[in-house]
Amino acid sequence: MSFSYEVFDRFGRLLAFLNRNQPNPNVPSPRPPSYNDRQLQSCRALPFFIWPNISPFRDAETVADAVPRPATANTIAESGDFQRARDAVKSARATGIGVFAAADPLRFEAFEIRYLGRREVPSRAVIDLSRNEDVMLRPQSYFRIPHPEDRLWVPAVFVPLFAARGWRLEGFVYVRHRVLPEGTSARASRVSLHTRRCSRRNASACWTTPPLTSEASSRSNP
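RESULT FIELD:
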């Protein structure tokens, strides 16, 4: 069992990479892929890549060092463990197994069910791993990246680090001198604070997203 930046999520669930305890990787037999990888290969689960909990980001000495340069997301995603995980999902989709089975395909992803059940909007920003662009999308626009293996989710608390690195924040609103908790974007629109569109010079301040718009609420096929 190995861990990354976070050991538990905000609901108390364990976040870990699992495999059998085997000091010698070839005795008594070659160690299989991790339980996480096997879940993706059979597509009994879909990936939910949260920065900085995955390689190569989790190997950096500091969180700030783990922030990728703008327009490098696809280059990073096409190497190492990252590529292997993404390729497993692509292969499962092509062969129609697991959640992609034609007879019973998955209609909603787990995180979508959670947000629908709580009547909340998504809270993590997202980067498209299929492209080398410098854009970070607001959480409500995640559906613009259709495939789950192409989404890199960034918790709100880390968004200023990406802005300082040079990422363009699409659909975000700058709120001066205030830290807003997750799920309060609608309330933020009623707070009497000076707001303005984000720019790179404001990267060290707090960020939030505007209320849900028709762009996201009109989505008919998650």
